[in-house]
Amino acid sequence: MKLQLSDIDDLARGAAILGTGGGGDPYLGGLMLRQALLDGGTVELIDVEELRDDAFALPFAMMGAPTVIVEKLPNGSESIAALRAMEAHVGKKVEAILCAEIGGINALLPLVLGARLGLPIVDGDGMGRAFPQLQMVTYHIFGVSASPMTMADEHSNTVLLQAKEAIEVERIGRSVVVAMGGMAQVCLYPMTGADAKRSMVRGTLSLALGLGRAIHVARKSSTDPFEALLRFLEGTEYYKHCRILFEGKMADLLRETRGGYAFGRARIDGMGPYAGRRMDVQFQNEHLIAQEGGDVRAIVPDLIAVLDSATAEPITTEGLKYGQRVRVLGISAAPIMRSSQALAVFGPQAFGLTQPFTPVEVLNPVEASTAPAVEEKS
Amino acid sequence: MKLQLSDIDDLARGAAILGTGGGGDPYLGGLMLRQALLDGGTVELIDVEELRDDAFALPFAMMGAPTVIVEKLPNGSESIAALRAMEAHVGKKVEAILCAEIGGINALLPLVLGARLGLPIVDGDGMGRAFPQLQMVTYHIFGVSASPMTMADEHSNTVLLQAKEAIEVERIGRSVVVAMGGMAQVCLYPMTGADAKRSMVRGTLSLALGLGRAIHVARKSSTDPFEALLRFLEGTEYYKHCRILFEGKMADLLRETRGGYAFGRARIDGMGPYAGRRMDVQFQNEHLIAQEGGDVRAIVPDLIAVLDSATAEPITTEGLKYGQRVRVLGISAAPIMRSSQALAVFGPQAFGLTQPFTPVEVLNPVEASTAPAVEEKS
Question: pTM of the prediction?
């Protein structure tokens, strides 16, 4: 499938929702992708089954604090420098590019790279959402080595990092990200087609595109975009448990960029059916936990998305502002992301949270949340 | 020339003096070198003229804060991992190892590596002293590229860094050093034999050995080690301007390890002929400036060494302690280190000092300092 210019906004919107607050503002990635297509590039999405088992497939991502990307745009040379450094080291040409995460700008930048170099993009990613650390991917869970990893900055300075443990790649790489100005473009988890087949969360680029399009179509036909969004997600394999957890006004926001991450917490005061209630959402690049008082309403690795309450446009953590009217959604992560092996790597404890993982559908039985809130709006 | 077991202490002592307070405690390097020789290794020092013009010569050094080395010893695998990573990248076998700096432990670790791998060491280095940053070498002044640089930690995690500017290699590499626990073993400025011939400060390993031996011999024959030291240096091409600047007691010491460096300042209260006077010595890994009140007595890149006032044993900045009786020496840097090109890279301004470089022999006309102080002691 070839991506069209008219698909970009929908893909960016869907990716921002699956980015669960992080992954970087996809608006910028959308602009870069538009330019790449206007320059004559082609984005060809292929199914992972189309890869030869011995094909050289390479995930690509931006690494750093989403708050930095807003002010420091990639110039396009970084990604190519990172990929070429990997090719030089491995001694093989890359045959297909993979997404590391489907969330935010990282759903779009691999497509820009593919369009610039004429390489196909495999439909899928390594988490079906976004995460702040590079060991937090299914590629790692399924035993693909994170290193060699190549990194590049805007001067085409490159770093090639090799370590036995993914966590070491993350730790040393993060310090390089800081030295590179809070943002670097990286190629990591170099793998074969066979590796990709056994370790990918499949089809998530199409899913993000479909999700963004469902909202778009609802807006055009003046129907409730939240209803369209919930209906679309309920029809998917991964995200079928989705709930509107809360609706209210952004009342307080604490945010700091530290050690290459955007940390923070948002307080939302309830409105409409939620008047008199309060929700707190905590994030490290991505939303980690949504709570009402002591009650957990959704927790990582399930997805927590904050959307404009009128348009269903997703809001990334760096876009959160006092006074915004928002709805908070809880969405089930792909089953592959909820295994005990997976939870050991990116469950609540990996982020220093003490609350255990509980599926969003267990925390929020359907009759209590989704139905009334949607009716209220439509 | 083959280095003998009995040479090690002398070489370490001479290197510590030329290390001008930094370069890391050579005691540890001496122990490692002794073990390498006892294990059957050979240290073969060769003259740079013995290198073929197209030989692959590779400088090796430890990068980090000298204060860290004291508590975190290299296990020996780091240096080999860094060298092998460079060989893999360049696609050539290393034929000779160079020292980056002659100061402190960095005069000895390349010899350990050479002994372990059976590679000769070229007699010389890239500065004739020690410096805290990796662009501060004659290799850089003479246009050899600092990158690719390879770095390794104690887990054999490796980083290969490529940047156009040496200062970028330093900046990004320094952040990796911090992530690697404050210390990394690095190979950098990969060069040809021809490069080495035009850019090295020649013969400094022999000079350090001779300097350490002169002190050793004086002690054994119960003559004044300072007189022997001054006489030896006066006979050298580089270090012939040497002065005893001050004698006194360590009265105050401020030290902090920050950003991969050991920063600090020492106050020495005068004794003997210097009673009633006070000297302040400021350092960033190495001593940068020695002052009495507002008067500069010696300034970087000239060498400032602090020695035990009885034995002439050099004291590194991390070995400075309240109450020590010390003599402070000012020694001329090699002429190659005092050119305007060189001063732009490692003159006083490079360290944030406002005082201009003035040669130690201009600041201290010979009759005013050396002679009386030595006579006092003997």
Answer: 0.85
